[in-house]
Amino acid sequence: MIEIDVRQKLGDLDMDIQLQLPMQGITAIFGRSGAGKTSLINVLSGLATPNSGAISLGQHVLYNSQAGINLPPEKRRIGYVFQDARLFPHYTVAGNLRYGCKTENVEQFQSVTQLLGIEHLLKRYPASLSGGEKQRVAIGRALLSNPSMLLMDEPLASLDLPRKQELMPYLERLAKEVKIPIVYVTHSLDEILRLADHMAMIHQGKVVVSGHINSVWGSPEMRPWLPAKEQSSLLSARVNHHHPHYALTQVMLNHDAYLWVNRLQSVRGEWVRVRVHSNDVSLTKVRSEQTSIRNILSAKVDKIHPVDEQERIEVRLRVGEAQLWANITKWAADELDLSVGDKVFAQIKGVSVTQEDLATM
Predict the structure, then answer these.
(1) Pick the CATH number of 271-354 from 2.40.50.100, 3.60.150.10, 2.40.50.140, 2.30.42.10
(2) What pLDDT, in 10s, does the model give residues 65-77?
(3) 99 φ, ψ to 5°?
């Protein structure tokens, strides 16, 4: 695990962060501007020193104020990708990439350039590259330094929408193939949905909630940050089979709960992440027959939360081990006479696979 326990005074911000992050996959650090996101990764990289605390990367201690340990950035083996690529303009792409190499490794060089799709750019100079191409080169340079961890500070923030769309597939591939922890700072919920495995939300220098993205996304702490139309549940599912007559794929939440989504290219057994908007979930105590809705799940009411000063009720459901949220009116909740523990049927109008941006009825 990556263990973080630091305190730092930054003007009016008192940063007091305690986090445990996994040693593989992408952890998104989310929060509003000024929350302390960039300050946190600057502390991790060694570019800033906290007032007190400790940081360890597995068994490797990076900082410990009590023990007097504070490794300089060059000894932490951490790659850093900034918002702007910060390439050397007088070096070719190949020269910029090799700047990160301590020793020449032809096989690794080829592997990284192929992963990022930049083999054809090696002889070009940064001035001739698009913003997305520059960021891919910056990521490659960081990877070729053989880091134990990669830090990414809003790498898409300076790009326009076409360049973001250009870079996103490479970041998705990076998340799957690079076997080191990646800490990814962003204020974009779309980027989190497509890339992150874990998530930590920071507000005013403190951790509000952290953990696997499915549990954080559906947590009560996260819901106030999302407008009603964006409130949703994330569920992990395995591809089961493709419909023989319709362009649909069945994905399994557990042995007796499944959903239909638009046909995926994924193979049986592959994990996907599905998103269900809370406004697309209606509840009934009797299973509907002869309905156009394809996705109906048996569930149990886990929590009933009235929204202040609104005629809206948030209902948290349990489908096996998974959580599913539904937004319904107070009128509907009263008519159904809902109580915690009730068995209900969740009728789901829309389901999307976050990596593919697909939806189906």
Answers:
(1) 2.40.50.100
(2) 989 999 998 888 8
(3) -60, -30
